[in-house]
Amino acid sequence: MLQKALVLLFVLASIAGCVSCGTTNSHYVYATLPAANQLAVYREDPNSGVLTELAGSPYSVGDGDTSLVLHPSGKFLYAANPGQEENDISLFTIASDGSLTEVFPRTSVAPDASQPVLLAMDPAGGFLYVANDGSSNISVFAIDPSAGTLMQVAGSPFTIGLTPLNMQLTPSGNFLYVTASSEPLGYIAAFSVNAGVLQLVSLTSSNGVNPTGLAIDPSGTYLYAANSSSNSIAIYNIGSSGGLTQVMGSPLADIYNDPVSLLLDPTGGYLYVANQTSNNVAVYSIDPTTGFPAALTTSTSTFAFATESSPSFLAEDPNGAYLFVGNQAGSAGIQAFGLNAGNLNPLFTYGVGNSPLSIAVLQ
Question: I need a surface site. Which of 113, 306, 342, 349 has the fewest CB within 10 A?
Fold first, then answer.
């Protein structure tokens, strides 16, 4: 539950934001609060980036909810619950005002999987992919388009054999990439996808330790992996069969510490990097020919923007106008930044009482 003192901040911020309010429909921001087993929901003013918590928020959810994913129809939201005696997925229906109603029973990943920590969905909304930390495998579920309910695909779960750190599908939905920790270096597993069935294509070194951050450009041509324990970003070309070839000059050294989250803007022109122990977000422009990142020269001399303590994940407004940063320490809040040609303009910071771990934004 948000502290009472924050209510005034939200009201004042909403009034300030409404000075330029237009007729654009609201967006909605959903954030997991795993320490409290809750899911917070905010209305985002698309003209100002201001967040206002909805009545009834935060909602109760499963134990230790860690990851969120929205159905492309905008009708359903899924949350991964890896906590004790949970090991399941929550399904919520989304009302026109952004409010949520959970549909029971929750879908278990047991008995062949445990600790679901990451979710991904294909662009058509036909399949939900679940990375399971406790069993080092991936569960795949077919999604009922009318009800949002889940049915496990034949052959699921599919073995990785390594502890998953991150997971993303290409925009086409034809390939799934999973980063994993190992010794001495991390790996990126590439899977081909056919009606939800996974087939391992390749296992590629991330050329660094703990490839926690992962991003794929909108064209599905380049893949970026942030090695958080090596302070580097590896860049790969994605081949027609899904295999990865490292781009010349990769890995790129990050002059900051602990790059844990990556985000590409909708055009693929800018790469945002959350550096957890440097307490900032670095910004790179992307060479459209090579895919290689370069420090944004129109920004500050150190091409990074200060955040609250321990920025750990990034999410962008569907219109590409605002960036939301989830911070794991200090204020344990969500920061909103305005975006302008890659530059970040600090807008507001929202304390949420418990550390947020995942954000999804609905248009």
Answer: 306
